[in-house]
Write a structure and sequence with these properties.
This protein has 406 residues and is an alpha/beta fold. The protein is 24% helix and 24% strand. The protein is globular.
């Protein structure tokens, strides 16, 4: 999630019968005013007719489309009798929001319709974001190096290139070092998944203590765009400053006072190469902040390769002096337990889920072989078994050598 969901105060209240035609209401952001670089949009739509509402999106006059997910809104159903309604959510960046006006597009009974909505960008915040972005990219220029030969780059404003001939485009709001060849090497593919997380108190304290440049590798979609942190991502989010791979960082040696890697190394094909890069660009005396899951279920952004024990994480950074290696409050066993139970329950039929709800902890704290034939175990689909698996098994065959032609 990028922003907090609206509370019950945003619920519509019944009054006079709803007017004919489509009605769109934006619960969040308040007043439909987008003020953050990236903002989650929550709302609802109610229309005439009984056909289901499908394929919702935000659209503008220039053909830009922002996909929306749908969810039930019982509160809207209660006060909109005779209409078909659904809740929706998605995210939009402030620059895109400024390119309105916006409509909610939906399909009903095979026909496509548009409905007006009150979504606009805060002009002052949009201008401020553009200024901060431009200033930061100018500072980034001096730190850039070729990710392959590590040499300095020439810059004509449109392309940066090294003496060996490697060339990379300069986009309006990011430097792009993720060419097709690098994408194949690291397994970077287009994904609709959105990774977004904030900084916890410990990390905010480290940021405050840092004197020099700060690098966030695999930053995701930043809820707030900081002037003092350079964001690297394989996805061109609006808050991304440098598009690149963790295994091939396009920065000079010993450039950063603090390097951040939160929930990234499990998604990297070669975490050892990524860890070496994080340390290479770190100044002497600088710090790495690395957070990696151990017992978290499978989650792909766009894929999930490795979980780690504390010993495994320590081994990745064997050359560092460890100041602390601990389990934060936000990563304790309760987060593992609730994640597994919620994903498990969501995959069950309503009848089996109801029986699952009535089980006690003591019913589950037994020899697992006593439970393998129970409905709540047998009913899990393959996708959920993969997500929550205790272990995986691979059987592989080495290709036979080809015989030389005589």
């Amino acid at each position: 999630m990028i922003d907090s969901a609206p509370d019950s105060s945003s619920e519509p209240s019944p009054s006079t019968p709803p007017p004919p035609g489509p009605i769109v209401h934006i619960d969040f952001p308040a007043g439909g005013l987008v003020a953050n670089p990236a903002t989650t949009v929550y709302g609802w739509i109610a229309v005439d007719g009984n056909g289901a509402l499908e394929r919702l999106s935000l659209v503008n006059g220039r053909g830009t489309s922002v996909p929306l997910e749908t969810h039930a809104r019982l509160d809207v159903e209660r006060i909109m009798p005779g209409k078909t309604s659904t809740g929706f959510n998605g995210w939009i960046d402030i620059r895109t929001a400024a390119d309105g006006p916006w409509h909610v597009r939906y399909e009903q009974d095979g026909a496509t319709h548009d409905a007006e909505c009150s979504l606009v960008a805060d002009a002052a915040e949009a201008q401020s974001f553009a200024i901060i972005k431009a200033q930061k990219l100018e500072r980034v220029r001096g730190l850039l190096r070729c990710p392959f030969c590590r040499t300095k780059l020439s810059d004509d404003g449109k392309v940066v290139r090294c003496a060996s001939g490697h060339a990379f485009p300069v986009l309006p709001d990011a430097f792009d070092f993720l060419d097709d060849d690098t994408r194949k090497r690291v397994g970077a593919v287009t994904t609709s998944n959105v990774s977004a997380h904030g900084y916890d108190g410990q990390l905010l304290e480290l940021i405050a203590q840092s004197d020099g440049p700060i690098l966030d590798v695999g930053a995701g979609l930043r809820p707030a765009y900081r002037n003092d942190v350079i964001n690297v991502e394989i996805v061109p989010y609006p808050t991304t400053d440098v598009i690149g791979a963790s295994e091939y960082l396009p920065f000079a040696d010993e450039s950063f006072d603090l390097v951040i890697s939160v929930a990234v190394l499990e998604h990297v094909r070669d975490p050892f190469a990524a860890a070496r890069e994080l340390q290479r660009v770190l100044k002497p005396g600088g710090r790495v902040f690395a957070a990696v899951p151990f017992l978290q279920p499978y989650h792909a952004y766009p894929d999930h390769y490795y979980n780690m024990t504390s010993g495994g994480l320590r081994n990745l950074f064997a050359n560092l002096e460890v100041e602390s290696l601990e389990v934060p409050q936000s990563g304790g066993p309760i987060f593992t337990l609730t994640w597994i139970l919620q994903a498990w329950r969501a995959a069950l039929s309503p009848e089996t889920a109801s029986a699952f709800d009535n089980m006690r902890v003591s019913d589950l704290a037994v020899d697992p072989m006593l439970l393998v034939d129970q409905p709540f175990v047998r009913e899990l689909p393959t996708q959920t078994n993969v997500q929550l698996a205790s272990l995986n098994v691979l059987v592989g065959r080495k290709p036979r050598a080809r015989r030389a032609l005589s």
